[in-house]
Amino acid sequence: xxxxxxxxxxxxxxxxxxxxxxxxxxxxxxxxxxxxxxxxxxxxxxxxxxxxxxxxxxxxxxxxxxxxxxxxxxxxxxxxxxxxxxxxxxxxxxxxxxxxxxxxxxxxxxxxxxxxxxxxxxxxxxxxxxxxxxxxxxxxxxxxxxxxxxxxxxxxxxxxxxxxxxxxxxxxxxxxxxxxxxxxxxxxxxxxxxxxxxxxxxxxxxxxxxxxxxxxxxxxxxxxxxxxxxxxxxxxxxxxxxxxxxxxxxxxxxxxxxxxxxxxxxxxxxxxxxxxxxxxxxxxxxxxxxxxxxxxxxxxxxxxxxxxxxxxxxxxxxxxxxxxxxxxxxxxxxxxxxxxxxxxxxxxxxxxxxxxxxxxxxxxxxxxxxxxxxxxxxxxxxxxxxxxxxxxxxxxxxxxxxxxxxxxxxxxxxxxxxxxxxxxxxxxxxxx
Length: 432
Ligand code: ADP
Description:
Layout lengths: L3 H23 L5 H27 L10 H36 L4 E5 L5 E4 L1 H7 L3 H4 L4 H4 L3 H9 L6 E4 L7 E9 L3 E8 L1 H38 L4 H32 L7 E3 L1 H15 L5 E6 L3 E5 L1 H17 L6 E8 L3 E8 L21 H6 L6 H11 L3 E7 L3 E9 L3 E3 L3
Parallel strand pairs: 7-9
Antiparallel strand pairs: 1-2, 1-5, 3-4, 4-5, 6-8, 8-13, 9-10, 10-12, 11-12
This protein binds adenosine-5'-diphosphate.
């Protein structure tokens, strides 16, 4: 099919030249008729070329000019390619229109950015939430329009695994959750969602927990105080003695719970401390070891290893509470005769505060959930150990406030290792 036009054309030319040669020799005109025939053929081809040129320049929407043979085929093929091209374009345009209209009608702000960070397109919600207008701001650098330092830091760092929560530049009352993804050749798509309601609910929850814990503290202290007084006076009646002992135990548990809840509320609501103290670890670790040994219901082989030339920078009270939670846990979840190791050391990238034990260990499925509030591997055993289920949540929050993270490694029956990993920027080498 493809070469049919070509063959027809060759045959047509051969017949024309052959007939002109025969006629020319019969009429005694020599090659003149051949010359006239080939010139006529060349003029005819030129005419078709002109028609093709004219059609390509002016009339692509119309049918191609009529032609036969090779010219007809070439024109038909061009027309067919153009038609297919138009169909593909129309399909793509329809898809782009569809995507744009769905983005445009979204309640989340959507902004498309080119690889240099200039705005290519944004929807209507970008106007209400971010103050951006497609007509005015298209082609402008986004960071010149959203000037909040936290946003600029987030945008430039290009670490978009976690979204950023920030105040809307249009209205200080609106809280936004901003997420960015790369697409194509490092173009970026930014979404901003109004999370004011969720933020307010979260704030209310925090305030509620903080207020309830605060209100419960005084009555519990009073009850605990009276129970201690009674305990000294009813020694001769064993029935009362047992009841009072249990009441004392439960009231102590509630007091621990309230103080842990208050500690968590404080960690959640207060901004990270700006002033960082330089804290030497050895005295802190020795104090924590004493606390943990008191919490343990028997003997433990408690080893301590400390890089004395390295101090940690942070809030001493918070770090002591986090480290002490880990050490007391190690004491609680081991038996007499087990070993506990507490270490402070650094390598080229990080500094580590680590508490390992040779205790009962933790099944792998529990490990990702350990830092959730009130999560316990074995609730019955944990209440016997006097735990609140809040200890590791406190550790996680304290570490977050120190740009550090908690890593847990554990094997059931062999023991556990809880490691607080600090960036070296949160430490300081001490002159020896
Ligand atoms: P709790 O007050 O119950 O100890 P935590 O938040 O401190 O609460 O710990 C959560 C759970 O993690 C504990 O209930 C316990 O099951 C488990 N856990 C923590 N530390 C250890 C450890 N060193 N060995 C074994 N299990 C542990």
